[in-house]
Specification:
Layout lengths: L4 H7 L7 H11 L4 E5 L2 E5 L8 E9 L10 E6 L3 H4 L7 E2 L2 E7 L5 E6 L1 H8 L7 E10 L2 E10 L22 E6 L16 E6 L7 E11 L4 E7 L4 E9 L8 E9 L4 E2 L3 E2 L4 E14 L2 E17 L8 E5 L2 E5 L6 E6 L2 H4 L3 E5 L5 E7 L6 E5 L12 E4 L1
Parallel strand pairs: 3-10, 12-26
Antiparallel strand pairs: 1-2, 3-7, 4-6, 4-8, 5-11, 8-9, 11-18, 12-18, 13-16, 13-17, 13-24, 14-15, 14-19, 14-23, 18-19, 20-25, 21-24, 22-23, 25-26
C-alpha cells in the first residue's frame, strides 16, 4: 500500500496516538484480522471464510541439476473456456487469465495463495460443466517449467457432466507439485518470462492434428454376451500434456493434464462374444509456444469411432452377480489409460487419458440367455460403487 505523507507522519509518531489505535495497527499489520477502535475499546473483526486468501498450489522447484531453486517466480494461470480456446487461430495468442504469483524461498519451496476476488475472477474461466483448466508456470533466468491441472467449480449448467475425480476449486484442495527447471536461452529476461502463449497450429502428424484417444473400454470372457459404449454430449476427458525444450533436445515429457469436453454423442458398435476392446475417438492436438518451449495438448473433440482389441483382464476379485438382460455402468471413477493418447510415433511418448463413467460415457453389458451364470468385476472397486475402474463380464 502506498501511504500519503500525512499517513507517514502519523505512523512515525505512535506515541501521539491513543493506545487502542496503536494496538489496532499492530494487530492489523500482524495478520490477526482487522482491529477497529471505538474510543478506548477494541472490537476485532476476523476475516470470514469467504474473504480469506485461498491456497491453490504448493510444492518445490528444482534447478536443472536437481537442486532447490530459490527466487523462482511461480505464476498460476487459467486457460480460457473451451468455447474461446477452440477458436484461437494459429499465430494468435491464447487469452490466459493470471490468478496470482509467488516466489520460492531459500529451500525452493512455495505456497501460492490468492485473494477471494482473484479466485472468483478465475472461476469465470470455467467451462459450462464447471471444469476449470489451470497452469502453473515457473519462470526465472535459472530456467522454466510448466504444469497443467484441472478443478471443478460448483456453478455449472443443468445436465452438464462434471468429472467426479477432479477436486473442487476452493479452499482445502491445493495442487501439490514438484517443478524442475529446464534451461532457458542465455538472453532470457527475468519475470515475467514470455507471458504470451502462442498457438502454433495442429500437431504435425499428417492428420491435421487428429489424434486417437481412449475414452473407455469393455472386457468380457463370457461367450454369450454383447458389449458396447456411448460417449459424448458434454462429457469431459482429461488428457495429458507434453512439453519440449528445444534447447535441450531431449524430446517431449508429460507435464500434467487438461480437460476437454465433447460435443454430440457417439454410440459404438455392439460386439457379441468373448471380446475385449478399447473405445477411441479423435481429438485435435495442437502445439503452443511459450518462451521457446513447446506444449502439445488437445484443443477440441473431432469425433469418430475407433476400436482396439486388448487382452482380457486377469485375477479380478471385486465381483457382483449379474442376471440376464442388459446392465450398464454409468457412474463412478474409471481407469486412467496411461497410454490413452497415441502420440509416441509423433512426439516420442504416449500421454494419459481418463474419462469418468456418466450418463454420456456409459458402458453396456448384455447377458444373452436366461440361464447364463455371470458376474461383473471391477479392477479397483465393485461395479455400481464409486470407484469400479475397468469392468469385465465373466462367467
Amino acid at each position: 500500500m502506498t501511504r500519503t505523507g500525512k499517513q507517514n507522519r502519523r505512523l512515525a509518531h505512535p506515541a501521539s496516538l491513543p493506545a487502542a489505535v496503536v494496538l489496532a495497527i499492530v494487530l492489523g499489520s500482524a495478520g490477526y484480522g482487522v482491529a477497529q477502535a471505538h474510543g478506548t475499546a477494541i472490537k476485532r473483526t476476523s476475516l470470514t471464510p469467504a474473504s480469506r486468501p485461498m491456497e491453490v498450489a504448493r510444492g518445490k522447484v528444482l534447478n536443472p541439476a536437481g537442486k532447490p531453486a530459490s527466487g523462482v517466480h511461480i505464476i498460476l494461470e487459467a486457460w480460457p473456456p473451451q468455447s474461446v480456446f477452440a477458436h484461437v487461430k494459429p499465430g494468435k495468442h491464447v487469452p490466459m487469465r493470471t490468478a496470482g504469483s509467488v516466489v520460492t524461498n531459500s529451500t525452493g519451496h512455495f505456497t501460492l495463495r490468492i485473494s477471494a476476488a482473484a479466485a472468483a475472477r478465475i472461476k469465470g474461466a470455467a467451462n459450462p460443466n464447471g471444469v476449470l483448466n489451470l497452469a502453473l508456470r515457473a519462470a526465472s533466468p535459472k530456467g522454466w517449467d510448466w504444469f497443467g491441472y484441472s478443478r471443478t467449480t460448483k456453478t455449472r449448467r443443468a445436465n452438464a457432466i462434471a468429472p467426479s475425480y477432479l477436486p473442487s476449486w476452493g479452499a482445502g484442495h491445493p495442487e501439490t507439485v514438484t517443478l524442475r527447471l529446464s534451461r532457458t536461452a542465455a538472453n532470457a529476461p527475468d519475470f515475467p518470462v514470455c507471458p504470451d502463449v502462442i498457438d502454433e497450429g495442429p500437431l504435425a502428424n499428417g492428420k491435421n492434428g487428429l489424434t486417437p484417444v481412449t475414452v473407455g473400454g469393455t472386457w468380457t470372457t463370457l461367450k454369450r454376451s454383447t458389449t458396447w459404449m456411448t460417449y459424448g454430449a458434454n462429457q469431459t476427458t482429461s488428457m495429458g500434456i507434453g512439453i519440449d525444450n528445444p534447447l535441450e533436445g531431449g524430446g517431449f515429457t508429460a507435464s500434467g493434464t487438461i480437460g476437454v469436453t465433447s460435443g454430440l454423442q457417439e454410440t459404438y458398435n455392439k460386439v457379441t462374444g468373448s471380446h475385449s476392446r478399447l473405445y477411441r475417438t479423435d481429438f485435435t492436438y495442437e502445439e503452443y509456444n511459450q518462451c521457446g518451449f513447446i506444449l502439445t495438448e488437445p484443443k477440441s473433440w473431432a469425433g469418430g469411432k475407433l476400436y482396439q482389441a486388448v487382452p482380457a483382464l486377469k485375477h479380478l476379485t471385486l465381483c457382483v452377480p449379474e442376471g440376464p438382460g442388459t446392465s450398464k455402468v454409468s457412474s463412478g471413477i474409471a481407469s486412467t489409460f496411461k497410454g490413452g493418447v497415441s502420440l509416441k510415433d509423433i512426439i516420442g511418448i504416449d500421454l494419459s487419458a481418463e474419462t469418468d463413467y456418466s450418463s454420456t460415457a456409459t458402458i453396456f453389458f448384455k447377458v444373452n440367455g436366461n440361464n447364463t451364470p455371470a458376474q461383473l468385476c471391477g479392477t479397483t472397486g465393485y461395479p455400481g460403487f464409486p470407484n469400479p475402474g475397468s469392468v469385465q463380464l465373466e462367467p
